């Protein structure tokens, strides 16, 4: 069941109380001083707004929604810098996963499950153009989304720059790379970028990455599912780190 709040006053109170709002649907050409003031407040909070026709709102909510519906996240997003500082304070080696344009709920849930099982440090997603964490995502992750930090950032490039400043190497996992992921040293603090299956990682992010690596494909199929790629990449890093400790 979708977790949403509707109506001008309830949405306003939810924002004031600090609830984690994923996005807000607003009726196109919504008028009224109270409504416009609320929309302005939503923008100031950096919450994603999507303008939709009245019919879509009516389909989602059978009650008097007053032209506005807010989706509430089932998890609380965490600050990326604070997460990294905490990891470093615990003398752990960061392993961050950055997802560029991954919008499929099932894929995201599967990625979160693999990453949490592997002991990855955090998953980073952009505010816009990314999956909305819903009950379905929680279910697909087998509850893993409750146990791994999810960091939502305004701009992934800024996130990459922050990671570099904190001495974390950024690796773009892309078929455009020449080197295999098995050839890289993933035992040090690093972040792995993965892109959506249809578009891959954006060129701007690939350019910002410190290194590029690919997962080998020997069959006729042109690509792997992004959740499978994420699992393979994360567990390669874990394998290397375990071997490093043993040696």
The third-level CATH topology of the largest domain is: Alpha/beta knot
Helix content: 25-40%
- CATH top level label of the largest domain: Alpha Beta
The CATH superfamily of the largest domain appears as SPOUT methyltransferase, trefoil knot domain
> Widest sheet: strand order?
7-6-5-9-8-10
- Give the ordered list of helices and strands: EHEHEHEHEHEHEHEEHEH
CATH architecture of the largest domain: 3-Layer(aba) Sandwich
- Tell me about the biggest sheet? 6 strands, parallel
Beta-strand content: 15-25%
Low-confidence stretches: none
Cα shape = elongated
For the record, the count of structural domains works out to 2
Terminal residue distance: 49 Å
Helix/strand structural class: alpha/beta
Mean pLDDT: 93
Q: What is the radius of gyration computed over CA atoms, rounded to a whole number of angstroms? A: 20 Å
Count of DSSP E strands?
10
The number of helical segments is 9
Describe the structure.
This protein has 247 residues and is of the alpha/beta class. It has two domains: 4-72, 2-Layer Sandwich (60s Ribosomal Protein L30, Chain: A), CATH 3.30.1330.30; 80-246, Alpha/beta knot (3-Layer(aba) Sandwich). It contains nine helices and ten strands. It has helices at 8-16, 33-44, 54-60, 80-89, 105-118, 135-140, 156-165, 203-208, 226-246; strands at 4-6, 21-27, 48-52, 68-72, 95-100, 122-126, 150-153, 169-173, 190-195, 211-213. The strands form two sheets. The chain has a six-stranded parallel sheet, with helices on both faces. A four-stranded mixed sheet has the order 1-4-2-3. Helix 5 (105-118) packs parallel to helix 9 (226-246). The mean pLDDT is 93.
């Amino acid at each position: 069941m979708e977790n949403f709040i509707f109506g001008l006053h309830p949405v306003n109170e939810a924002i004031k109380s600090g609830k984690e709002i994923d996005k807000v649907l607003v009726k196109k050409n919504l008028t009224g001083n109270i409504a416009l003031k609320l929309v302005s407040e939503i923008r100031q909070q950096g919450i994603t707004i999507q303008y939709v026709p009245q019919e879509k709102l009516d389909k989602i909510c059978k009650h008097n929604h007053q032209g506005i519906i807010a989706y509430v996240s089932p998890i609380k997003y965490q600050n990326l810098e604070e997460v990294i500082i905490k990891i470093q304070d615990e003398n752990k080696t960061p392993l961050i996963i950055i997802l560029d344009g991954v919008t499929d709920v099932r894929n995201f849930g599967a990625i979160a499950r693999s990453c949490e099982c592997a002991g990855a440090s955090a998953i980073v997603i952009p505010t816009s153009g990314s999956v909305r964490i819903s009950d379905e995502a929680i279910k697909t992750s087998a509850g893993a989304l409750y146990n791994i930090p999810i960091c939502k950032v305004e701009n992934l490039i800024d996130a990459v720059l922050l990671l570099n400043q904190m001495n974390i190497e950024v690796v773009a996992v892309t078929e455009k790379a020449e080197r295999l992921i098995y050839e890289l040293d993933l035992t040090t603090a690093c972040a792995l970028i993965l892109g959506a299956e249809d578009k891959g990682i954006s060129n701007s992010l690939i350019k910002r990455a410190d290194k590029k690596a690919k997962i080998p494909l020997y069959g006729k199929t042109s690509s792997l599912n992004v959740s499978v790629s994420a699992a393979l990449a994360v567990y390669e890093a874990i394998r290397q780190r375990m071997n490093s400790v043993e040696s």
